Structure prediction request, 162 residues.
Amino acid sequence: MSDVIGLVVDMRRPCRFCRREWLAWLAAMREAAGEAGMLPGQSNGPRAGESGKGVEPEKLGVCLIVAGDGDIAAVNLRNLGCSGPTNILSFPGEEGELGTLFLSADTLERECVLYGQNVAVHARRLLAHGMGHIMGFDHGPAMDEFCAWLEESCPLPGEARQ
Prediction:
């Protein structure tokens, strides 16, 4: 299921974006974080002091599960005690991995309709938000700045990387 070392996309629900597109976004974000020294085991970022357990920071694993509202609601309840679906959940990984992201394709589409957002822009924003959390950031200005930078580092379909 992985074309890029350490990256896995599990498509449990049909989605506007294919597995290859999600992998490209994850790879671009992980690469950008690595260039900034923000990955675990590098000099910057909240997880700087962690060991990669023999894994190079640029190859730390990320698993993205694209699911439906029912699946993400179950994960939300089981792990966080919250009922109902949400857009993205993030779970930092153990040594050797960044973590796991659960993204609801249903909630992504619904939020785009409700708020008039471009679906690719919103998908990239949610992915950056989840990546920020698995890299150790909590909500606040530092996370907002880092996530905005990750978004800009990750081209939308038809754009070149900046």
